[in-house]
C-alpha cells in the first residue's frame, strides 16, 4: 500500500482527459497534475526540447513525492519516454503502449489508423509499436494539428470542425482501416465529429481510457495502490491558472481540488 500521489503531466490542459479517466477508475488515488501551459504546444517542437521540458517536470513531480509518473502527452510519450525511464527510478508510463494494445484488440481487418500531432506522427512511435506487436497489421498515420486549437476553443461540433475532419480523414476513405487511435490528448473531445466523418463502424481508441487500466495493473503489480483514502486532484500550471480554470470543465467531469501556478524551468 502506498498513499503517495501519482504524477501526471502534459504540455497543457489536454492531459486532463487522462486525469479524468484515472480518477474515475482509481478513486482512492490522489493525482498531482502539471500542465506546462507556458510552453504549450509540444506538438511541433524538437525532440531535444521535449526531453528537456519533460525532465524538468518529472524532477519536480519526484520532489513532490510522487510514486509513479504518467506522461499524458502523446508527443512527450513519443519523444521523451525512453529518455525519462533511463534517468529516473520510479515507474513512468506513457500513453502510446496502452493505446496500441487497445487498438490491436479492436481491429479485425488488421488495419489501424493513427491520428496525432506532427511530433507524434513524425516519430512513428505508434506505428513502430504496432508493428513490433504484430507485423501483419498495416498502419496509416495522419497529423491533425488543427484539432488542438479547435478543442481548446470548444469548437467541437458544426461546419468548421467537420470540414477540418473531412480534410484530415480523407486518407482513410479507400482504406481497410476499422480502428483509429486518437493519439493526442485533445482528440477525445472531437470524438463525435470524427465518428460522424469516418463512419460509425470504425472503432475510435481513446488512449486515456486504455492508459488508466494499465496504470491500475502497474500499481497492483508493484504494490503501490492507495488504500482507505479518497483521491484528490491538484493541478499546477506554468502560466496563469485563470484560462486553465475556465477551460478545465471541457476536459473533465471529476472534481479538481486546486489549480495553482508553479515555476518549473
Ligand atoms: N498534449 C499534446 C499531445 O497529446 C497536444 C498539444 C500540444 O501540441 O502540446 O500530443
Please state the overall shape, judged from the principal axes of the Cα atoms. Answer: globular
Mean pLDDT: 96
The CATH architecture assignment of the largest domain turns out to be 3-Layer(aba) Sandwich
- The helix/strand class is alpha/beta
* Main β-sheet description: 6 strands, parallel
Structural commentary:
It is a single chain. The radius of gyration is 17 Å and the shape is globular. The mean pLDDT is 96. The chain has helices at residues 16-25, 47-63, 74-87, 96-106, 118-123, 125-133, 147-152, 159-169, 191-198, 207-221, 241-251; strands spanning 6-10, 31-35, 68-71, 92-93, 111-116, 138-143, 179-183, 203-206, 233-237, 258-261. Helix 3 (74-87) links the parallel strand 3 and strand 4 (92-93). The strands form 2 sheets. Strands 4-3-1-2-9-10 form a 6-stranded parallel beta sheet, sandwiched between helices. A 4-stranded parallel beta sheet has the order 6-5-7-8. By secondary structure, the chain is an alpha/beta fold. It has 2 domains: 6-94 and 209-261, Rossmann fold (3-Layer(aba) Sandwich), CATH 3.40.50; 96-207, Rossmann fold. It starts with 5 loop residues before the first strand and ends with a strand. Helix content is 45%, strand content 17%. D-glutamic acid binds next to helix 3.
